[in-house]
Structures are given as structure tokens and as C-alpha cells.
Design brief:
Elements: E1 10-18, E2 24-34, E3 38-44, E4 55-63, E5 66-80, E6 83-89, E7 95-97, E8 105-106, E9 110-117, E10 120-131, E11 135-140, E12 150-156, E13 159-173, E14 176-183, H1 188-210
Antiparallel strand pairs: 1-2, 1-4, 2-3, 3-6, 4-5, 5-6, 5-7, 8-10, 9-10, 9-12, 10-11, 11-14, 12-13, 13-14
Length: about 210
């Protein structure tokens, strides 16, 4: 596909290059500017950060809908505290590669959020905000969390799956609270099922993005 991104769509980028010893290294950076000829990226200052220039590098663009990978030319590097500014040649094309394990995708599913308090189960109705093969976020009208493990019974369009989950963090949003969980002892069957949902959603987003 054609290399065509908006800065607001990009979470961060990675470059993989050869150092002066011939070893492969990877650096995570922020995307600062894009034009037809050059890309400006920025990362934290690194002492003794030397790269033979120019050189062909692997370039990854990490967006909400997945990872995009290509090769390009590293043209220049300015390593002065507190930042490193790197200029790359803008590639012509790039390939989409979904990450089935880590990328959360926005979805909307009904969910029963079950917590165990005072020797009894308490059920709350919630809506799934986003999901991945490693965790899930729920939307709730109130800030309801438990230090104990919880059960999440999610209805995937008629297919119901019960997942044991551990509270990770929460965030106040305009319409309520986004509460995030990681799965505990999820079966490979359930993980694969959720992965397939994530892949399908990522591909749908990717198709919509290039239209």
C-alpha cells in the first residue's frame, strides 16, 4: 500500500539499523514531520549514539490499528541533548502487519462485570470499550473496581465467553469510567477466538483508512 499517514494516526515509530560494530539495534521514536521526500523522527538523547549514514534501515509505524513495516534510508542524525533528531527518506510503499497479541481494538459488546465482595457475587452491566488477546476495557457509569479477581461474561454477538480478569487501571471519561483488565489463565481457545475478532476489526479499520 502507498505510504500515507497523518501524524495523529501514529502512536510511535521504530527504526532497526546497524551500529558501527555491525550489530543490529532498534530505537523507538516519535514521528514529528512527514512530507513527500523526508520524515523527521525524534527520540531521547543517547550517549555514543553513532550510525553509519546513509544506510538502509527497517522502519515500523505503530498505529492504533496495527503495525506497518517497510524499508527506507536513514539520511542524517543530530544527537544533541536532550534529543536525537533523525531524518529518513520517505518510502514509497509500506506493508500492514497486524499484531494479534497486543493491539486493543475498539468494539462494542455487552458484558456482565462480576465482582466478589463480602462473600457474595455482585453483577454489573457494562459495555466493552476495547479488547485484545491480552486484555479488555469496560465502560461503566460508576467507578467500580475490586482488588480481587473479577469475572467478565462477554456476549460476542451471540457467543458468550467467561473470562477471569485482574484490574489494571481506570480512566474518567465524559460518559463514565473506562476500566481496564488483563486476563488471568485464559484458555488458548478463548485467546484465539478473541485474536480472530481483533484481526478482523484491524483489517476492517485498515481498509477504511485507505479508502
Amino acid at each position: 500500500m502507498k505510504f500515507s499517514f497523518k501524524l495523529e494516526d501514529i502512536k510511535y515509530v521504530k527504526i532497526t539499523y546497524k551500529n558501527n560494530n555491525g550489530s543490529t539495534e532498534t530505537v523507538k521514536a516519535a514521528m514529528k514531520e512527514i512530507n513527500e521526500k523526508e520524515i523527521l523522527i525524534c527520540t531521547k538523547y543517547k550517549e555514543n549514539f553513532y550510525i553509519d549514514i546513509p544506510q538502509e534501515i527497517d522502519f515500523s509505524v505503530i498505529c492504533n490499528d496495527g503495525i506497518y513495516k517497510t524499508k527506507t534510508i536513514l539520511k542524517s542524525l543530530d544527537n544533541q541533548e536532550p534529543y536525537v533528531f533523525i531524518i529518513l527518506e520517505t518510502p514509497v510503499g509500506i506493508e500492514y502487519q497486524q499484531n494479534r497479541e497486543y493491539f486493543r481494538v475498539p468494539v462494542t459488546y455487552n458484558c456482565t462485570y462480576r465482582i466478589y465482595e463480602n462473600n457474595e457475587n455482585i453483577d454489573y452491566s457494562a459495555t466493552v470499550y476495547d479488547i485484545s488477546a491480552n486484555g479488555v476495557s469496560l465502560m461503566l457509569p460508576e467507578h467500580i473496581i475490586s482488588e480481587n479477581l473479577s469475572d467478565l461474561i462477554i456476549n460476542f454477538d451471540g457467543i458468550e465467553i467467561s473470562l477471569r480478569a485482574k484490574y489494571v487501571r481506570s480512566e474518567k471519561l465524559e460518559k463514565g469510567y473506562k476500566i481496564s483488565f488483563s486476563y488471568v489463565n485464559i484458555s488458548e481457545l478463548d485467546r484465539d477466538f478473541i485474536s480472530q475478532i481483533c484481526i478482523k476489526k484491524q483489517l476492517e479499520q485498515q481498509k477504511n483508512r485507505i479508502r
